[in-house]
Design a protein that fits this description.
Strand order of the largest sheet of chain A: 2-1-3-4
Distance between the termini of chain A: 31 Å
Strand content of chain A: 15-25%
Radius of gyration of chain A: 18 Å
Order of helices and strands of chain A: HEEHHEHEHHEH
Oligomer: homodimer
Chain lengths: 158, 158
C-alpha cells in the first residue's frame, strides 16, 4: 500500500459521502486509476436515476470504458469504498482491471441493511429453490443462435 | 408455460440473433414483461458501445426501470435467451422481478467461449487467491460514512 493508494481510496470514500449527502443513492464510491492517474469516478445513483444497476463500481466502470474507448480496463486499478456486490463483482471480471482495493466489506454493508450476502447465497441455490424462481424454457430454439455465433467470422470477441 | 411465455421467449431469442447480426455484441437477448405486455427489451451491446456491463439483461432492466420510473421491477417477468451471468444475476436481484425464464444455460454459453463459470468460481475464492487480486484498505476511514448512512433520516432505501 502506497501513499497514492491511500489518496485514491480516500477519494472513493469522499465520493461515497458526497453521493449520500446529495441523495444520489447509497453510501458507496469508486475511483478507477490507470498509470497513477484517475480515469473515472462513480458513486451510487440507484434511487436518484431509477437504475438498480447504478452502483458506484458499475457507474465508474462505464465512465472509464467510455473515456478509454475500450470494453476492457487493461492495467487499471479499482478503488471502491466497499467490497463489491455480486453484480459489481461480475462487472469487474468482465472489465478485467488488474487489481481491486476495497475499504468496508460485505459484513459492514449488511449492518446498514445492504445485504449482498443474500444474493451470494441465492447464487448457490437450485433454480427452483431461489427467492426469485428461475425456469428453463425453449433451449432448443435458442441453441441455433449460439451455434451461429460460433460460426460467425466477423465478430469481436470479449 | 403458456403460449404467451413462448411468445416472449421467442422474442428474446430473436433479439439475441438481431444483436449478433448487427454486430452490437454477443448473441444474447432479453425481454421484460409486466401485465402480459412487453415493458422493455435489450440485447448485448458490449463491444459496440464499449460498455462491459451492457449485457442483454442489464440493458433491458435499465430500459424497463426508466420506463416504469422505478428502481424496482415489481410484478415483472424476465425472459432471457441465456442463464444470467453473475453480474446480471446480481442486477436481477437488485431489481426484484417476480420470475426469470431462461433458454440456454451457462454450459451452453461456455461452449461458445462465454465462460461465466469462471466468474462463479472466482466468487468462492479467498481474496488473495483470485485471478484479480482483492486487497483491503482504509476500512477505518470508510466506516464513518456507513454509520452516517445508518443515522441519515431523509434517505430512500433500496
Amino acid at each position: 500500500m502506497t501513499n497514492r493508494d491511500e489518496f485514491f481510496m480516500k477519494r472513493a470514500i469522499h465520493l461515497a459521502e458526497k453521493g449520500m449527502d446529495s441523495n444520489a443513492g447509497g453510501p458507496f464510491g469508486c475511483v478507477i486509476v490507470k498509470d497513477d492517474e484517475i480515469v473515472a469516478e462513480g458513486f451510487n445513483q440507484v434511487t436518484s436515476t431509477n437504475d438498480p444497476t447504478a452502483h458506484a463500481e458499475v457507474v465508474a466502470i462505464r465512465n472509464a470504458c467510455r473515456k478509454l474507448g475500450s470494453f476492457q480496463l487493461d492495467d487499471c486499478v479499482i478503488y471502491t469504498s466497499c467490497e463489491p456486490c455480486p453484480m459489481c463483482f461480475g462487472a469487474i471480471y468482465w472489465a478485467r482491471p488488474k487489481m481491486v482495493y476495497f475499504a468496508c466489506d460485505k459484513k459492514d454493508a449488511a449492518k446498514i441493511n445492504f445485504d449482498d450476502q443474500f444474493i451470494y447465497d441465492e447464487l448457490d441455490k437450485e433454480f427452483e429453490n431461489r427467492d426469485i424462481t428461475f425456469v428453463r424454457l425453449l433451449r432448443k430454439d435458442a441453441l441455433p443462435v449460439f451455434n451461429k455465433w460460433a460460426e460467425k467470422e466477423n465478430k469481436t470477441k470479449y
